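Listing S7. Sequence submitted for prediction.
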Amino acid sequence: MANEGSLDELLHSIQQVVETETDDFMELVRIACLNIARDFAGADLSGADLRGA
């Protein structure tokens, strides 16, 4: 399967986010190896409390 490595990386990132003790949004973004500008572009986060993020 061509995307098997990508799937493994995704599952690893999800596991790390689930297991972390923090609720800090920016820290979770970092742990998940996401890019805040690219990966959340167009996302409607209006219902999310991002104070302190």
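Caption to Listing S7: primary sequence and predicted structure tokens for the chain studied. The mean pLDDT is 87. The radius of gyration is 13 Å.
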